[in-house]
Amino acid sequence: MSIPVITETPKNPEVDKPSKDVLDFYFTPSVDEKVVHENGQKIIDFLTGETGYNFQLHVTKNYDDMIAAFGTGSADIGIMNSLSYIKAREDFGVTAKLRAIRYGKSTYFGQIVTNASRGIKSLKDLEGKTIAYTDRSSTSGYLFPQRIIKNAGVKPGKIVFAGKHDTVVKMVYEGIADAGATFYSEPTSTGTIRDARARLIDKYPDVEEKVKILTITNPIPNDPVVFAKDLPTEMSYKISLGLIKYLLTEEGKKTMMELYSTDGFMRCSDADYDELRQAVLE
Fold first, then answer.
1. Identical fold, 22-104+222-272 and 107-220
2. Where are the domains of the chain?
3. 107-220: CATH topology
4. Which of 30, 63, 80, 102 is 20 to 30 A from 37 (CA-CA)?
5. What's the rounded Cα separation, in Å, for the pair 127 and 45?
6. What does the DSSP 8-state code read for residue 145?
């Protein structure tokens, strides 16, 4: 796949030393925290070699904690979900420089999945049921699926927040929740699933049969890589270029796929998230 590269040049390329000794790089808890730590460390080690900057890895407990980290000045760089970016942009002026590419696409979807044994065939069947979401600041794991359910006039019996997409799938698989909301990516040309259920297929080989897709949301712009408002342009440029280079390596492809099902980055701007921003206001 051809990955777009940054063609702009930094405003002041001579100034390339960070204003502090260590840059704080934040990651969202999309999968098991140990997996995020291990793979996140590989990313920042590569970036140190590419940029000469030193980084400290942080894994937040939830999306709101990452937003707060930018608000307190603790975070310099973060890979966050699209909804969190909109909030962080509005409140703290962060900038989006890169946008994830997943399976060759710059958008993804949310999905509502159900436990096959519960006989849920339509949105109306969710009335009075237990529904698991990931996090209130998740676009695919809460905002878009929740809007679908609300617009259908359905009132769930109980709402739980599992924190991670794979945890939602696990709860639905084990019958703890009747239904759940996670991210969705289209299957491969041979039919291999690539949505959140795929993360548990090694542990639960029959997850595709026991956890069924009820409906899919409208498209959502992929997750951005964001930078603190006061981070110099030349620094965000070098870090962005380093991330693009990392995705061109075999280790980078494997690492980002395990972390965020990402196989590339493309340049982006705040305007790319205008449609999502409008959906939040509705």
1. yes
2. 22-104+222-272, 107-220
3. D-Maltodextrin-Binding Protein; domain 2 (3.40.190)
4. 102
5. 49
6. H
Q: Which of 164, 277, 268, 274 is nearest to 225 (CA)?
A: 268
Q: At what angle do helices 82-92 and 63-71 cross, to 10 degrees?
A: 20
Do residues 152 and 146 lie in contact, with contact meaning Cβ atoms separated by under 8 Å?
no
Predicted structure pTM score = 0.71
Instruction: Pick the closest to residue 88 from 57, 65, 59, 108 (CA basis).
Output: 65
Tokens of 95: 């900038």
Reported as a single tens digit per residue, the pLDDT across 23-43 is: 999 998 777 888 999 999 999
* Beta strand segments in 60-199, E: 77-79, 95-101, 107-115, 130-133, 158-161, 179-184
Mean pLDDT score, 50-66: 95
Q: Look at residues 157, 139, 282 and name the one whose alpha carbon lies nearest to residue 218.
A: 139
**Contact between 129 and 171 (Cβ < 8 Å):** no
The amino acid present at 82, given as its one-letter code, is S
Two structure tokens written together for 136? 């209130």
